[in-house]
Amino acid sequence: MTMVDPDTMRRLALIRILLMRAENDSRLSIPFSFDSVNRLHDVAEMFLALAAQHYHVQIPREFNEYWSCLETPLGRPLTYRAQMQKFNKIRVNLKHYGVEPSQTEIDSARQTVHGLLYDECPNIFGLALEDVSLSNFVTSTKARGFLNSASSRWPADPTEAFADLDEAFTETVRDYEMRKVVTPRVSIFDTQEASDLTVPRVGVTSAQAKFYTAVAQSIKALEYEIMIVGLGVDLRRYGKFKSLMPTVFYNVLGGRSAIDRPGIVRRDQDFEFCRDFIISTAIHLAEFDYDFDLYELYRDAVRADRERKAREARAQVESSGKLVERFDLPFPGKNGDGRLGHRDGAGDVSDLRG
After folding, report:
1. Residue 281 CB: number of other CB atoms within 10 A?
2. Residue ranges in 178-287 assigned as alpha helix (H)
3. Is 94 in contact with 37 (CB distance < 8 Å)?
4. pLDDT tens digits, residue range 60-108?
5. Are residues 142 and 73 part of one domain?
6. Helices 35-54 + 66-74 axis angle, to 10
7. Which of 274, 293, 248 is nearest to 165 (CA)?
8. Shared-domain flag, residues 302 and 315
9. Which of 52, 192, 219, 354 has the fewest C-beta atoms lying within 10 Å of its C-beta?
10. Number of domains comprising the chain
11. How far apart, in whole angstroms, are the C-alpha atoms of residue 87 and residue 44?
């Protein structure tokens, strides 16, 4: 695999992300899938423009001219020419003439652009598009670490690799959630202020304790799913993601044990789906992100109020001290006789003895 400079690598990562989003849009029902035609075309053009820059050839003015200008540096014809010409006509008809594409044409466009980028990327840039890391688009450091760990463990250790993916998703959501809190451990997305449900330890039978535990776990799981749906995570894709995860246990020291469920067989496309699902979730959350800490804001307000009161108290003490100075220090009066006095508003000195 040839070395690719960081700028090209980041642009390939961006192209891959935009392709993922365009492909997802293309699977929406009509008419919501129409815009994916423009998105797919833009991604293809970004890829071809990057290829032209990679070979130091001038970017053509017309889309169809990419096949001519790239043929010489490649030493062969660029593939998918006929399919992309057909797709370009569909895009022009939609954009300029309002001709609505059929679902079959949209599906064909998605397959064509996907094929062009994934087939040509290794030939042009020396690496497969699926090998372009997208983890840098994940803002959570912990989640990014789990993603990189999963990639290094797959496929040699599939159970631990998918356990890493499970933790990566959890950390992605937790990072977003716990940067928006009302108290140190309660986020604004919690459905109740005291979300730690506890099981009574006194006055209950073992059967009742088991029931309470099951209810508490069910409520917590329901709260979590309500939250991720509210955050805009696709519950259908999340369901597939969770179905591929092992059962993970944690001990009191923070150690992890992952156990696979019987019958689970994972393929490369399953790993790619789960990895891309985490990254697309992180990117989706980043579209509307902010930090909010009501508890820290409250502490800042209390601190500021204390400082204000302290300043006012110091000002009162200093003011009182100045009055004492004025009345205790002897200084010459009008006639310079040394009697105690004070200055009036005009600057004259009056006798304090009357």
Report:
1. 25
2. 206-230, 235-243, 268-286
3. yes
4. 999 999 999 999 999 999 999 999 999 999 999 999 999 999 999 999 9
5. no
6. 40
7. 274
8. yes
9. 354
10. 3
11. 11
